[in-house]
Amino acid sequence: MIYLGIDTSNYKTSLAAVDDRGSVVSEISEYLDVPEGQRGLRQSDVFFKHSNRLPELLSILLKDTDRSEIAAIGVSDKPRNVEGSYMPCFMAGVNLAKVLSETLGVPMYTFSHQEGHASAVLEYGNSADATETCIFMHLSGGTSEILLCKKNASGYELEIVGGSKDISFGQLLDRFGVALGYPFPSGMYIDEAAAAHEREETSDILGKIACKDAYFNLSGTEKQLMDYAELLKNKDVKSYISAISYEIMDKISDLLITCIEQLRDKYTFKRIVLAGGVASSETLRDMLGRKTAPRDYSIEFGLPKLSGDNAVGIALLTERIHRLSK
Fold it and tell me: What pLDDT score was predicted for residue 259?
């Protein structure tokens, strides 16, 4: 049997299909178009773009699928699994899921976008015990939260124990990237620039990001970066951008390690799992691996493609809850 997952997060339309073994049958996702120079879209525009894109992507996803094999539909209907969590963009996916559920005569299940991230990293191709409590870092364009995470029957229990008090890491990278002239979202371009950094070319622009009880603020770092972007205008900036991009990732990795150490004084855990678009950064992955070795805990990442927004985690949750409901 086949289980469909749908996720319409802020800037990516995603669909996926998995089978009874949790293997991905097919998946497709595309970023929404953001006009040059803009740092985002209004929710009304996001909803409209998702709604227009979903039928075509669904047709591609189901091109070689026997509709009679579809057992259930899953969809993300909110950012987080807490009371009052809501964003209009998710309603585009919910509307499609309702139509499919009624048309095919199969059940529809709803999950939070954050649970989908956790599932994509913790369940897809991972043999570790997902029932064991771990630290889950959700680092994306709209969220930078550190959570205690434990698998339950319907999804995941996620309790916030740290994170940003203002903007997210993704917003930090996107705003700086757009100021430098990169397209939105800009994280991938900052990561590429950081990866090209020549170690002998150093920058010392950013101060240490303070952290207390695993909570921190990023607005001060944003101000430093935006001021620096203004200084770089009309200059040959390739080497400067590479150096400052590397420094950004260096400061972020130091901050995350500090958060981990502060949480170890309060909680018992052996695994730290990272997901979200920022967690797909190869530079950040390399830095965290080097800076925490040797260690008595593990830092784990999902596949880069599944670290960002995707519907694979939602499809996996759909298969699991449908199986348990029988």
Answer: 97
Structure tokens at 191: 């990561």
What long-range pairs does 40-43 form, CB within 8 A, spacing at least 24?
Answer: 40/10, 40/11, 40/174, 40/184, 41/10, 41/11, 43/87, 43/88, 43/89
End-to-end CA distance of the chain: 14
Neighbours of 173 (CB within 10 A): 28
Highest mean pLDDT among 178-192, 227-241, 291-305: 178-192
Which class for 63: exposed (0-12), middle (13-18), buried (19 or more C-beta within 10 A)?
exposed
Q: For residue range 39-63, what is the model confidence (pLDDT) as tens digits?
A: 888 999 999 999 999 999 999 999 9
Is 50:93 a contact under the CB 8 Å cutoff?
yes
Nearest to 299 by CA among 140, 142, 114, 146: 146
Domains observed in the chain: 2-126+306-325 (3.30.420.40), 163-301 (3.30.420.40)
Give all strands of the β-sheet with 144-151 in edge-to-edge order: 211-212, 215-216, 156-164, 144-151, 134-139, 271-275, 298-301
Strand partners, 166: none
Render pLDDT for 220-229 as a digit per residue (tens, 0 to 9). 999 999 999 9
